[in-house]
Amino acid sequence: MDRVKLIASGKLITPDKMAYALCLGADLINTARAFMISVGCIMAQTCHSNTCPVGVATTDPKREKALVIEEKMYRVCNYVISSREGLFNLAAAAGLESPVEFNENHLMFRTADGRLYTGKEYLHGINKPSVVSGSTREQMSIPDVQLGSFH
Fold first, then answer.
1. If you average pLDDT over residues 20-34, what whole number do you get?
2. Has residue 9 got a pLDDT over 50?
3. Read out DSSP for 20-85?
4. Is the pLDDT of residue 43 over 60?
């Protein structure tokens, strides 16, 4: 039964990160941060105070003037088009017709000691490198992720 949908979120701004989330099983991706940045958000972290310096997150009419919609709409459009194009290019490079076809077979993990694991091996615990609490990234063998077509 396909009643549960997985929505990936959290700094998924670039097509490679989006593809990674899809490979890990995401059904869709939330790219809120990327859209905020594309309209001019500078991450001033004042959204809750109604004092956004660039007018993105405010209802103050004076501050809203800083947000020029006629200019920003092109930036948002460019982000959407380039992200989509990049995601479809990655899918094509993996031999897929669409990014929705990404799965764990399109991932390769490289450990700190240079060993390679398929996404399926790594995600299902086969040959999974050990992780020691409190260790550095190198000591824990946290893998670098690479996209590829491995069937």
1. 91
2. yes
3. HHHHTT-SEE--HHHHHHHTT----S-GGGT--TTSSS---HHHHTT--HHHHHHHHHHHHHHHHH
4. yes
Take residue 67 and report the two structure tokens written for it: 């947000």
6: its two tokens:
């997985």
d(C-alpha 94, C-alpha 148), whole Å: 6
Is the separation of the CB atoms in 102 and 22 below 8 Å?
A: yes
- Alpha-carbon span 81 to 87, nearest angstrom: 10
Residue 149: band (very low, low, confident or very high) from pLDDT cuts 50, 70, 90: very low
Could you give the CA distance from residue 120 to residue 145 in angstroms, rounded to a whole number? 13
**Cα-Cα-Cα-Cα dihedral sign, residues 141, 144, 147, 150:** negative
29 touches 8 (CB < 8 A): yes
